[in-house]
Specification:
Length: 216
């Protein structure tokens, strides 16, 4: 759920400004899931731009404080949200931990890195939500250690129906700074994409797992 429309629009504008959003409908990207996509969002680029990472950090902190007050610890989902999660924890003067989708195969075989205690209240930071599966694996790991997950805040979501279902089934609150729909509107407004590209991108979202670029 997008909490603030101004923040959603501004975040989308900034992502486009730094080319964190890559669009290519003719030679689509292949996601880890195997889906073909005309869009790729790389939020890690935010960390290379001080004024933008400060904006993102401050907006996430505002949402955490509005929704949950001050938790005991901030958790980032590895690896994309480690950087921004640390910035959020630093601004809030809170401990930081990060969570892998799966345990390491060597060393101490940790899935959660950092110090924490049972029954601590934690807000999870994520950079991007597609289906939500990897994000929710991190939530499962935290709950297995008996931490209390208050909710998750992400920079961006594609807004797929399956992601909403997955979060609902796990009883996890999800809020995002911006979303795919806000991004498309902003991209069209500033002529980052053409009307035809807008239509292609809207069509892709309807059924991304079955999308065929050769039919568009």
């Amino acid at each position: 759920m997008v909490l603030n429309k101004y923040t959603a629009k501004k975040t989308a504008e900034l992502l486009l400004q730094i080319n964190a959003i890559k669009l290519n409908s003719k030679n689509p990207f292949t996601w880890a899931s195997g889906w073909k996509s005309p869009i790729y969002c790389d939020n890690r680029i935010i960390l290379s731009h001080p004024h933008i990472r400060i904006f993102v950090r401050e907006q996430i902190v505002k949402q955490i404080e509005e929704l949950y007050g001050k938790p005991d610890v901030i958790a980032g989902v590895a690896t994309g949200a480690i950087g921004i999660g640390m910035l959020v924890a630093d601004l809030m003067n809170l401990p930081f931990i990060y969570v892998r989708p799966n345990s390491k195969k060597h060393g101490r075989k940790n899935q959660i890195e950092g110090q924490y205690s049972k029954s601590q209240k934690v807000v999870v930071i994520e950079d991007l939500i597609s289906t939500g599966n990897s994000s929710l694996m991190a939530v499962d790991a935290l709950r297995e250690e008996e931490l209390i997950v208050k909710g998750m805040i992400s920079i961006f979501t594609y807004g797929f129906d399956i992601s909403y279902s997955n979060f609902k089934n796990k009883n996890v609150e999800l809020y995002t700074l911006s979303s795919y729909d806000f991004l498309l509107e902003q991209a069209l407004d500033i002529k980052y994409i053409t009307d035809n590209e807008f239509k292609t991108l809207k069509e892709w979202k309807k059924n991304p797992s079955k999308w065929n670029p050769n039919k568009n």
